[in-house]
Design a protein that fits this description.
two-stranded parallel ribbon; alpha/beta; NADP; binds NADP nicotinamide-adenine-dinucleotide phosphate; six-stranded parallel beta sheet; 39% helix
Length: 294
């Protein structure tokens, strides 16, 4: 009997790459990993054609327009990749009875909250990136009832571009750094999210099926400044990290002040257990150092 095929988009991004590193350990599935050259999400027709060609049982959409500030001025492209393409993928999956797992963001929330957002908290994005990701959620849920949306936050990995790698690079060159201290959230190690997604697919295969919106981040709450301090400690870099306000560091896109998500539903429905972000950060930096990437 043939194995279920898992099609992964965005293979060169943080999450897509982490999935590609895990794939070899899961012998009960076949995987196909696609990057922008194999599947360009700016073209809805090629999404349809590609999914019809591979006929996957599961599609994990890790590709996205993730340049939060640039999205303010490149709105049409951000909408196409994050919303229209996600909708087209959901449609193509429904026609094959395939499950779509697509990733969304904590930036669908306005940031005015003071306690972790449950999955049914009303959304109210404060920037275009968040708006386009929310539109993608809505289109995916409308076009395919067998859709799982996983909202995540503050993603880091040893691969790709992220806050951890940027901080390490800057801390090596500078004696001090100013980092925003009034935005609160939960970091997520892309490796841990990748493992959780595979665990969810194993559960779906076993007949434990729950669709809709889920939240996933590592456990624990921090702000960018304390996150940077933890990176300096973990990487043993003697850089003085000073907290500043968002008002002192203006960016083209507004960020939510508070974007911590309640991850209870993914634990309840799929038995996913999250470890503390500091523990995950330790593993990521250890990997960077052992691979001489930092
Ligand atoms: N990074 C975060 O902090 C964060 C926070 C919350 C949610 N998320 C969500 O988590 C998911 C994974 O994020 P990530 O951090 O792994 O993102 P990432 O590292 O920025 O990777 C995104 C990937 O999408 C690909 N892509 C962009 N436009 C494309 C197009 N038109 N056609 C095909 N591929 C395209 C990029 O390809 P190239 O390599 O060719 O550019 C890149 O490999 C995304 O849905 C993101 O919105 C991320």
């Amino acid at each position: 009997m043939s194995k279920p095929l898992i099609l992964v988009t965005g293979k060169n991004g943080q999450l897509g790459w982490e999935l590609s590193q895990l794939a070899a350990a899961y012998h009960s599935f076949d995987f196909v990993f696609l990057g922008r050259t194999e599947l360009d999400l700016s073209d809805n027709l090629s999404i349809q054609t590609c999914i019809e060609k591979y006929r996957p049982a599961y599609c994990i959409n890790c590709a996205a327009y993730t340049a939060v500030d640039k999205a303010e001025t490149e709105q049409a492209m951000a909408y196409q990749v994050n919303a229209a393409a996600t909708g087209a993928m959901a449609d193509a999956c429904r026609k094959l009875n395939a499950t779509l797992i697509t990733i969304s963001t904590d930036y669908v929330f306005n940031g005015n909250g003071t306690k972790p957002y449950p999955v049914n908290e009303p959304t109210d994005p404060v920037n275009y990136y968040g708006y386009s990701k929310r539109a993608g959620e809505q289109l995916a849920l409308t076009n395919n009832p067998a859709t799982i949306i996983i909202r995540t936050s503050w993603v880091f990995s040893s691969h790709g571009n992220n806050f951890v790698k940027t901080m390490i690079r800057l801390m090596k060159d500078r004696e001090s750094l100013n980092v925003v201290a009034d935005q609160t959230g939960s970091p997520t190690y892309a490796h841990d999210l990748a493992a959780a997604i595979i665990q969810i697919i194993q559960q779906l295969e076993a007949g434990n099926k729950h669709y809709g919106i889920f939240h996933f981040s590592n456990a624990g709450i921090t702000n960018w400044c304390d996150f940077a301090k933890a990176i300096a400690t973990e990487a043993q870099l003697a850089c003085n990290v000073k907290g500043i306000t968002t008002a002192e560091y203006p960016t083209p896109a507004k960020r939510p002040a508070y974007s911590v998500m309640d991850t209870g539903k993914i634990s309840k429905d799929y038995g996913i257990v999250m470890r503390e972000w500091k523990e995950a950060l330790h593993d990521c930096i250890h990997l960077l150092q052992s691979e001489n990437k930092s």
